[in-house]
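[job 0417] fold request received: DUF892 family protein
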Amino acid sequence: MVQLSERPGIKKLSTLSDKFTYAISMVYDAENRFLESQQMMVQCCQNKQLRSTLENHIRETEQQVRNLEQVFELLGEEPQRITCDAAVGLISDCQKSMLLTADHQELIEPGIAGGQLIIEHLEIAFYHCLIKGAEKMGKSQIVQLLQQNLEQQEQTAKKLEPLMSQLLAEIKSVDGKTAARSK
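[job 0417] inference complete; emitting structure tokens
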């Protein structure tokens, strides 16, 4: 169990507003971490469609970070990053996968697509929860900003799903040829 003493500067939350600001701070941290990780992943892509999808999403993520900064402004708060352990873990898992498949480019790209798809689904869940909180607090401008981010996450997930399937199908055909040759 995490102890508050492990999180210096974090106070106990006593209102919906406190909880919302805390959650925005975690998502702000996550988006910044995911931006850095996408910039690394795109360098490993040889597949033009995956590379293009990631490059486009990098631009969207930069806008999402700016949208979250506007949310902080609307809340009368300075942007603050509170470590999002889920983001740290997902990025770590993606990096391990890339290291373990580094000698086989045909395995790296489905791993990147799959890892990014998992990240998108986490972000979709984050934004759904944040939107509900903002609606409860009557913050319509914040809802609009968060809705923009959510829609971009959903669109990216829709692009990644068939792309990941395509990349996996290409591996299957490579594996099948290798197995046939070894018989």
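[job 0417] notes: Residues 178-183 have pLDDT under 50 and may be disordered. DSSP finds five helices and no strands in the chain.
[job 0417] exit 0
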